[in-house]
Amino acid sequence: MVKQLECKDIKEYLKTDTKKVLLDVRTQEEWDQFGKPDGEKLGLKTYFLTIQDENFLNDFKKLLINQDCEILSICKSGQRSQFVAELLEKENYKSINISDGFDNWVSSDLPSL
């Protein structure tokens, strides 16, 4: 079962001693219109890869994210990122869904581009 994490809890969660990366799976249009999370300011290597691409899993594997990293996936509202987290867990990655999405990232005063 995929672990759920709300934006308000991210800063505290990042204090845990595990390697973590952020994966934004929204569309190019969403990034252009609403902005992007700036995970780098939180110490998170951040990747942007839309789930709408039929080659998502192959493109994800090309990112060469180590399987010992926890992957925090985010989308607009938490639904697509839940799907991605489940998909990645099937591939033996450690996945966490940011359940309240990028809308709450911004309202939680987390850094954005």
Strand content range: 15-25%
Task: Domain count, please report it.
Answer: 1
Largest sheet: 5 strands, parallel
Spatial extent as radius of gyration: 13 Å
**The CATH H-level homologous superfamily:** Rhodanese-like domain
Structural class, from secondary structure content?
alpha/beta
What level of helicity do the residues show? 25-40%
CATH architecture: 3-Layer(aba) Sandwich
Instruction: Choose one word for the global shape.
Output: globular
Low-confidence stretches: none
Fold and architecture overview:
With 113 residues, this protein is α/β, with parallel strands linked by helices. The protein has one domain (3-107): Rhodanese-like domain (Oxidized Rhodanese, domain 1, 3-Layer(aba) Sandwich), CATH 3.40.250.10. The chain has helices spanning 10-13, 28-34, 56-62, 79-90, 101-107, and strands at residues 3-5, 20-24, 45-48, 70-74, 94-98. It starts with a strand and ends in a 6-residue tail after the last helix. The mean pLDDT is 94.
Sequence-ordered SSE layout with sheet pairings:
Blueprint lengths: L2 E3 L4 H4 L6 E5 L3 H7 L10 E4 L7 H7 L7 E5 L4 H12 L3 E5 L2 H7 L6
Parallel strand pairs: 1-5, 2-3, 2-4, 4-5
